[in-house]
Amino acid sequence: MQNKISFEPEQREQIAMALTENLGIDNQETQNRFIDSIEQSGTLRGFGFGSLLTYSHLQNADGTYKDSLKENFPDINTDTLIQVKPATLYGYDRDFVCYDTFYRGTSEEPGITLGLDKAEDAKTPGGVLETNLSDMSPAAAAGFVQHYLEEFANREMPPNMPIYTFDFIDVDITNGEQTPALVCIADNQGPLYIHNENNDFARKDPDYFIKRGDTVAKASILATAHGGDDAPGAGIKGKQTDLDYLRGVINSSFEKNIPVEAKFHDLYTMAIIHRSGMSPQDRAYMEDMELQGNDSNKIELLAEFSRAIGAHNANFTQEAANDDDYHLDQMVND
């Protein structure tokens, strides 16, 4: 089979260096496999299991493409640039296992975010984001890959938030076909891994060491955590509160026909129940941020809540559903 792209040696070296510098992938065999995959398919692939299902790291949170993309690649056709295909990653389990101090949390009051843990017999539903490079020259494609990896690292490894390691792993797509993709894996020895007894927060307060299976502790954080006023994307849908993040993952998954594990149904339910128990002032504070993320559109926020609830209605307790529907109706009518 003829390659879609044929890189020159210096272009392969450019990409290999970008893998090392941005994602810490310095294994030569993995680097060559990554580059060979792009040459053979004309496609750059990443596996999304959280916010990447909502928007690519080449895009803003509202789905528009970043100015830097057009500035660096003015001739690129964004209409056909990215497509998402449902996929499954075997041998890894996704869960809220990392503290978030940058997007939906702060260095004083962290949120939590999704990560992948290696686990025998586990599987994670998600999507492969396929980025089409086949219309580019080898030089332009090499430059694009470097830009892609820089943006990928900026999104997944923001300042002072080292939560992931990276690999290039086979994932299953339709009809049992496999394709390799970049994958973010939780650093289970890292300073922000919630199940690490010596994580940065647990060393100051033992309550920040969260045991595996402690859904209550995770739900309470999801209900209350939010980014600071200067957080990236503050006021943009899906970027401000942890509950918005979970809701966005659920909604984006169902929109793309990607299954959602039962444990996230339970987490959402428990987070809503916890939110309902907050003081009216604290609850209004959180909901105001979520309204900002929907351009102060209360009807749209209600729809966001309702879609997430309806997506897993069988797993949602009637008491929580009744309480949430009542409160949201009150918000819309206020």
Give the rounded overall mean pLDDT. Answer: 85
The CATH topology? Hypothetical upf0131 protein ytfp
Shape descriptor: globular
Residue fraction in strands = 15-25%
Instruction: Please provide the ordered H/E string of secondary-structure elements.
Output: HHEHEEHEEHHHHHH
Largest pleated sheet: 3 strands, antiparallel
Q: Give the low-pLDDT segments.
A: 233-239, 312-334
- Structural category is alpha+beta
Secondary structure tally, helices: 10
The fourth-level CATH homologous superfamily is: Gamma-glutamyl cyclotransferase-like
Query: Distance between the terminal alpha carbons, to the nearest Å?
Result: 63 Å
Helix amount, in percent?
Answer: 40-55%
CATH architecture level-2 label? Roll
Provide the CATH top-level class. Alpha Beta
What's the structural domain tally?
Answer: 1
Count all strands and give the number.
Answer: 5
Radius of gyration from the alpha-carbon trace, in angstroms: 20 Å
